[in-house]
Amino acid sequence: MNDQALIDIARTLVGTGKGLLAIDESTMTCDKRFAKLGIPQTVAARRAYRELIISTAGLGEDISGVILYDETIHQDKEDGTSFLESLMDAGIVAGIKVDMGAKALAGHRGEKVTEGLDGLRDRLDNYFLMGARFAKWRAVIAIGNYRPSRGCIEANAHALARYAALCQEAGLVPVVEPEVLMDGDHTLERCSEVTGLSLQIVFEQLRSQGVLLEGMILKPNMVLPGLSCPHQESVDEVAAATMKCLLEVVPAAVPGIAFLSGGQSGELASARLNAMHVEAKTGTSPLPWALTFSFGRAIQQPALGIWGGEESHRGAAQEALRHRAHCNRAALRGEYTVEMERN
Hints:
Blueprint: H1 3-14, E1 19-22, H2 27-36, H3 43-54, E2 63-68, H4 70-73, H5 83-89, E3 93-97, E4 102-104, E5 112-114, H6 120-130, E6 134-141, H7 150-170, E7 173-180, H8 188-208, E8 217-218, H9 235-249, E9 256-259, H10 266-282, E10 290-295, H11 297-307, H12 314-332
Parallel strand pairs: 1-2, 1-10, 2-3, 3-6, 6-7, 7-8, 9-10
Antiparallel strand pairs: 4-5
């Protein structure tokens, strides 16, 4: 695939006033969430839940792309239609999570590096042939005593860059996700410092590996205080800090930034995203890149709770999913309001 095709796909994903939906939880993660709700932890239950999401009527009005897991990309709906075909019929681009998870980083106690580069070229080629057109790789950066180390950031940035280069070679748009975790008691200022440094090093590595910045998507965390930090800034303060950090380090060549939710509630994630777009509207110049969402739990969680493994709850669960997607699309226009949650 040529450079222009990658650029066109990236723009379709982030430049159409829609966002991404992540349903790429590993089997272990999905089963843990099912167990909490008393849902059977089986292939059949996972398939039924993912079908519920993919077959939600009108999903393509708010969602431009869906990130799948390896198990899911091979599955079909009950009527025999493949999940990939269903997404294409809805005008939604299919993506795939390709990393193998974060593992302990040797020589760096308490820190992790994401693995999965071995054999990745062949896996990417296969996913492209199946119909996927973008991929995702997540790195995790924890803040704590003497953490993160520069070695941890550099190891993850290098892996992200090698993954991104392989994606583009295979014709897939890479979603580059360096997540600074919310866990801890760190301040907003500390999160901004770590996020800025992490992104700076990530882009150094992306350039070093020859990645086409115009044909990728950045999936960062919002700049937030740690969950146990005694002072929690307002929605507007978080939006301002996040925008300032990104404007300082993200090149204008990148077509779009799609925020992860990182454990935020659906309502709070929507409100913070909305505040960024309100701030952008009042700025003296337009943003150099599109600003959208790539949420998982912040869209899925209400639907999962309503469904609970019961087919009779399917319709209500889909309504809840569509509502969260609709709220986030409204946030991209700076039109999200608390009143929307009451309707």
